[in-house]
């Protein structure tokens, strides 16, 4: 962390030194990246995570149909009324396992939609593929929310699944659905699903107005359910969700996040008033947090951009958005919410660090473009930051992911000459059904897990959890905090890559 220094001369020298170090770091072994190719691959990745009946357009051809009976086992969490035989086929596997966790899946979908909503002009021929990736999720969410007063939160049992190293095409672990309801609420998962449906309705209007209207109508209904019957799914489904995607930040952030997206989709004062009347419920200390669990920084940036709180003086959304920016920039003298590795990777404590790198970089780019449109600077203590600096910091992170790092390794599978070979991913690490038609039982894939051989199937576009704080990456399946890809890592990266492809 940089100590605060008084005086314009000292600040200028410190800033010049940081920028010089970054320029030198970027020029040493730096590569001119093909952002268009990386964008294409980042979207193809989602096809490798699909569950359900795969379409003829499927490009990740080593993947086959899976989870075709999802929803036909007795549900848990809402088992008191014995829901059974409901079609929950479709959606995405979140990472290297075979469970459909709807909380992170909904956040992934919201971020894919935000990527398109803000960067659509730069997506070019990848736009149809991005919209297809979004609709693959929303088709599933419409199924999950079709029963009034019930929202399905998960399909499959995490503990049973994590005990197996098994292809999704061979799954024989329990596929019970898990639901929340009026009596057993789950506001965070329900509200995030409402946000995903609302955000997706915005970007799908131009291609299918009727379908988009259906998404928006369902988003309103699900939001009202989440808001009226408030409670955490930790309490109703904690045994099944809390070892995997427990909600640590509460559910007020998801309710406000969903209302913000509903305002963007409808422009109705009801939703902007909801945000303004409830923003005090957020924990102010989380202004720099953003991801599948915590939405604070995303709310501040999005509301600032939408501008419905302009009359507030001082404006808490702009204040906290800029507090977020200042907590991330390397040259800022304010308290940091992140660290940087010696090679320049933005880092937060915990596993799967690239989820933070891509999500935070996305917000920097969005806020930087907003500030640039207003020709405003950002004051970080005694350092004045111009908007282009935010795009520069975000680009540095994207370039690190694509190979500008001490190992000269791309952390996107299939991009560049050197990338992870032994990622923590069941389908990728096991022979495809084309190569090995016979079923692999639950423990049948164990030898492949421990093998030192590269994965036989390339999960193109997958971005893994990434190196450690010292830029080291062992490329081991067993080291899942670093070697496992996840949909919510890729989703913000789609928007970033679209922008840098055009700039």
Automatic annotation (TrEMBL):
Keywords: Carbohydrate metabolism, Cellulose degradation, Glycosidase, Hydrolase, Polysaccharide degradation, Signal. Residues 1-29 form the signal peptide. Gene3D superfamilies: 1.50.10.10. Its EC number is 3.2.1.4. SUPFAM superfamilies: Six-hairpin glycosidases (SSF48208). Residues 35-497 form the Glycoside hydrolase family domain. Pfam families: Glyco_hydro_9. Coiled coil: none annotated. It is an enzyme of class 3 (hydrolase). The active site is at residues 424, 475, 484. GO terms for molecular function: cellulase activity. One of its GO terms (biological process) is cellulose catabolic process. It catalyses: Endohydrolysis of (1->4)-beta-D-glucosidic linkages in cellulose, lichenin and cereal beta-D-glucans. Belongs to the glycosyl hydrolase 9 (cellulase E) family. This is Endoglucanase. It comes from Chenopodium quinoa (Quinoa).
């Amino acid at each position: 962390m940089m100590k605060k220094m008084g005086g314009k001369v000292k600040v200028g020298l410190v800033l010049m030194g940081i920028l010089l170090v970054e320029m030198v770091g970027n020029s040493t072994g730096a590569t001119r990246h093909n952002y268009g190719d990386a964008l294409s691959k980042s979207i193809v990745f989602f096809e490798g995570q699909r569950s359900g009946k795969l379409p003829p357009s499927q490009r990740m051809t080593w993947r086959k149909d899976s989870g075709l009976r999802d929803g036909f086992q007795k549900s848990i969490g809402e088992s008191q009324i014995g829901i059974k035989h409901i079609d929950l086929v479709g959606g995405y596997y979140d990472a290297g396992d075979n469970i459909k966790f709807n909380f992170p899946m909904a956040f992934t979908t919201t971020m894919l939609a935000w990527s398109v909503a803000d960067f659509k002009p730069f997506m070019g021929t990848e736009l149809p593929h991005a919209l297809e990736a979004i609709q693959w999720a929303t088709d599933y969410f419409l199924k999950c929310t079709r029963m009034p007063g019930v929202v399905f939160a998960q399909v499959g049992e995490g503990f049973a699944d994590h005990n197996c190293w098994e292809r999704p095409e061979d799954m024989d672990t329990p596929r019970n659905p898990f639901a929340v309801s009026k009596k057993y609420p789950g506001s965070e998962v329900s509200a995030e699903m409402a946000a995903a449906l609302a955000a997706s309705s915005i970007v799908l209007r131009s291609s299918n107005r009727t379908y988009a209207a259906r998404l928006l109508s369902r988003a309103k209904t699900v939001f009202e359910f989440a808001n009226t019957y408030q409670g955490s799914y930790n309490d109703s489904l904690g045994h099944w969700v809390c070892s995997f995607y427990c909600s640590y930040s509460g559910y007020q952030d998801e309710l406000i996040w969903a209302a913000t997206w509903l305002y963007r989709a409808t422009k109705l004062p009801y939703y902007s008033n909801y945000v303004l009347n409830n923003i005090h419920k957020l924990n102010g200390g989380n202004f720099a947090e953003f991801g599948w669990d915590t939405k604070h920084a995303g709310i501040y940036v999005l509301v600032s951009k939408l501008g419905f709180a302009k009359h507030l003086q001082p404006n808490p959304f702009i204040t906290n958005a800029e507090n977020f920016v200042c907590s991330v920039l390397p040259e800022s003298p304010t308290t940091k919410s992140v660290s940087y590795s010696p090679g320049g990777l933005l880092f937060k404590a915990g596993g799967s660090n690239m989820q933070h790198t891509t999500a935070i970089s996305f917000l920097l780019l969005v806020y930087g473009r907003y500030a640039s449109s207003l020709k405003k600077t950002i004051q970080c203590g005694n350092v004045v930051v111009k908007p282009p600096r935010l795009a520069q910091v975000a680009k540095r992170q994207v370039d690190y992911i694509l190979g500008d790092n001490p190992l000269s390794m791309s952390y996107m599978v299939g991009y560049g000459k050197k990338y992870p070979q032994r990622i923590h991913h069941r389908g990728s690490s096991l022979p495809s059904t084309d190569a090995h038609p016979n079923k692999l039982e639950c423990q049948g894939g164990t030898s492949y897990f421990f093998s030192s051989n590269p994965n036989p199937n390339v999960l193109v576009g997958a971005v893994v959890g990434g190196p450690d704080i010292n830029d080291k990456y062992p490329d081991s399946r067993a080291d899942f905090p670093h070697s496992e890809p996840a949909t919510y890592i890729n989703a913000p990266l789609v928007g970033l890559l679209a922008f840098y492809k055009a700039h």
